[in-house]
Amino acid sequence: MSQWFASGAHNEPGSPRKTRREIGQVVSPTGRDYSRLERTAFCRERTARLAVAVVGAGALGNEVIKNLALLGVGRLAVVDRDCLEASNLTRSVLFCMGDASGHLAEATPKARLAAVRAKELNPDVQTGWLAADISEVGATRWTGFDVVFSCLDNASARLDLSRLCLRTDRLLVDGGLGLANSSDGLISIFPGRSGPCYACRKGRQRRAELIAELYARAVPCWGREAEAQDGGFVATTPLLASAVGAFQVELGLRAVFAAEQSNHRGQAVRLRMHPAPAISRFVFDRSPSCPLHFDTETESLEIPGRSDQVTVRQLLDATGEPGCYLALDGAIVHRAVCPTCQLEWSPMRRRRCLGAVTCPACGGFRVREVDALVQIERDSSWAETTLTDLGLPSGHLHEIVNPRASDKRFWVELIEDRDNPRGGVQWD
């Protein structure tokens, strides 16, 4: 008959029985025992100091949030723009609860519910949430996190988040589901400003399409096709989400702890569950042709004011250099039309978010873009518009370009935005 022992917990015959505390029990003020993690890479001394953000609270995001909560990270913020739907309940472990029907009826934000459930899993974790698209989160808001986990389900949003992490030098760990036969997953690690971004890993043609989709004044036909595909259903299972989520947290936290991450290379792991299970790993470098990395001179500026007070012209004047323009992070739709009632108005939303916009007159969906802004010069009619009225978030890093000086760039931050909670995570 075999006998099972916890490693290091048994005694030699005839020796006094040791208590759990004597063998290395690590108990938090809430009574949570972390002793089984102490001999792993995820000891309490490390995890309790971490501040992490999870963007996307769907099937994959649920698994990542659950794992981070069980490990006991210090701060955990959840960002997601959607509300709970019935289809989430078959794939998302945190949303399966007795009162799920109430949350469905009330259209509870997924970010809020996931944060609450993470706190229930582990009271040691300080949780926060934000029901917003990432384009509505200022770049400087991400600087408070050691690592950002991307659990998004479309390429355009991933590109947005990667660019924000590149700009703020944050480690980004991206996870994706259903790459083939709904049985593949991919985990990618982007080390920050010195390494490759999400666009670098794409082929030249796909990278050009993604960036043009963000910045073109009109959406090309292949852009509309990509939007339609991104807006559809992504086939996922709780099994694949669980496997990819475990790899994502394991690899992501090890990357935070490992000093060798300063090698400036990206790495990726692909999981294949069917027809033949397989795991492969590859590394990748920054692409020399990726336009999201700047080799030109850059200068950081801090100026007084808030986003709802400062105009584009004031922002441009702060550089002290003529001929500059404000480069927007992506096309902002300032003219749209409702195909149902033909109302035309100014939604002032990022192109990628237009699918979530409804007509203010009839409530119709499938709003169509008429015109969009990608940059604003000093003599533009938009120059007297405040940054908030342009749809830019509080706490943003504004990119000013001087084409007369070899595209010299300024990163401008508004000082008062730092203390302005609007657009920030709501912590427990």
Which architecture of the largest domain per CATH? 3-Layer(aba) Sandwich
Average of per-residue pLDDT values: 86
- Taken as a percent bin, the fraction of beta residues is 15-25%
The count of helical stretches stands at: 9
Number of strands: 16
The secondary structure category is alpha/beta
Instruction: Identify low-pLDDT runs.
Output: 1-23, 218-232
Please write the CATH class name of the largest domain.
Alpha Beta
CATH topology of the largest domain: Rossmann fold
Characterize the largest beta sheet: strand count, sense, and whether it forms a barrel.
9 strands, mixed
Return the domain count: 2
**What does the overall shape look like?**
globular
H/E element order:
HEHEHHEEHEEHHHEEEHEEEEEEE
Radius of gyration: 24 Å
Distance between the termini: 50 Å
Helix content: 10-25%
What spatial order of strands do you see in the largest sheet? 8-7-6-5-4-1-2-3-16
Instruction: Assign the CATH superfamily of the largest domain.
Output: NAD(P)-binding Rossmann-like Domain
